[in-house]
Specification:
The protein has about 280 residues and is α/β, with parallel strands linked by helices. Helices cover about 50% and strands about 15% of the residues. It has two domains: about 10-85, lambda repressor-like DNA-binding domains (434 Repressor (Amino-terminal Domain)), CATH 1.10.260; about 90-285, Endonuclease, Chain A (2-Layer Sandwich), CATH 3.30.870. The two termini are about 30 Å apart. It holds the Pfam family HTH_31.
């Protein structure tokens, strides 16, 4: 299934706009409470805007810039960016099977140059076989119809096109626990086929897969749990890359972290986990 990769929908423009507006508010030495009062909005609305969770009208951006006393040229740039927050990514066609908040992740994944992931229980979605997906969805969503499972599988397989897209394929750096290889999701044949697929994926130039052996002892992944670190390329005009994001798929919903201290803590955790891991080929061969 060919997809129009290269567009990030509204995710990245929303994130960029939110960051710029937060910087303007901080420069104006204004708290979110004060800004909300001046704009006659709720603090929750300011938070959603600054974290890139909602699209914005140009008029709203103009109002915020006026309150923050932003320079005229900045107002023009940000109102143009606001128009981009209305864009729709290819994944909106699957909105019926996308969990709340996960559309943000898909847009970030689409824009990323590298995804580093630690998985302690299952195979990462970008590396799953179709049969593994079907078995996982059937077991985890017993109420789902065959048609719904088909839609979920097609959506996940469409995301996998990132690994083979022309020009700038996504780099994936995955670290799995050995247990994740042997959970037997779908039975022996499905599990065997999944491990064989992982072995083939190891040979892609943009893919690195490592495994933490069961006998490795303590590593930071035992405390951190599963997480994904997304890193982004420079802009088309050579501007600085978007700041990294850590995504955590919590049981009650997604968590996105982007503060410098949070990113650094997860970078250190990832380095510690990698130090305990071995090349997946030594386990899968």
């Amino acid at each position: 299934m060919a997809l129009p990769h290269g567009t990030t929908g509204s995710t990245m423009p929303r994130r960029q706009l939110g960051r710029h507006l937060r910087e303007l508010r901080n420069r104006a030495r204004m708290t979110t409470r004060t800004a909300a009062q001046r704009l006659e909005w709720s603090e929750a609305k300011i938070w959603r805007i600054e974290t890139g969770q909602t699209s914005l009208r140009s008029l709203d951006v103009e109002a915020m810039c006026k309150v923050y006393d932003a320079p005229t040229d900045v107002v023009g740039t940000l109102t143009a960016l606001a128009r981009e927050t209305k864009a729709r990514g290819w994944w909106t066609a699957y909105s019926d099977v996308i969990s709340e908040g996960f559309d943000v992740y898909v847009g970030l994944e689409e824009a990323a140059k590298r995804v580093s992931t630690y998985e302690d229980a299952m195979i990462p979605g970008l590396l799953q076989t179709e049969s593994y997906m079907r078995a996982m969805y059937a077991a985890g969503r017993p109420e789902a119809t065959t048609a719904e499972i088909d839609r979920r599988v097609r959506f996940r397989m469409a995301r996998q096109n990132l690994l083979t897209r022309a020009g700038t394929p996504l780099h994936i750096d995955a670290v799995l626990t050995e247990a994740a290889l042997w959970h037997g999701i779908g039975g022996v044949e499905v599990a065997d086929a999944q491990r064989a697929h992982l072995r083939r994926m190891c040979d892609l130039p943009n893919t690195r897969i490592q495994v933490v052996p069961t006998e490795s002892g303590y590593h930071d992944g035992l405390d951190s749990g599963r997480f994904v670190l997304l890193e982004f390329p420079e802009g088309r005009m050579g501007e600085q890359p978007e700041p990294p994001v850590v995504y955590i798929e919590a049981f009650t919903g997604p968590v996105y972290l982007d503060k410098d201290a949070e990113i650094e803590r997860y970078r250190r955790a990832l380095a510690n986990i990698r130090a305990a891991a071995v090349d997946a080929r030594t386990v899968l061969d």
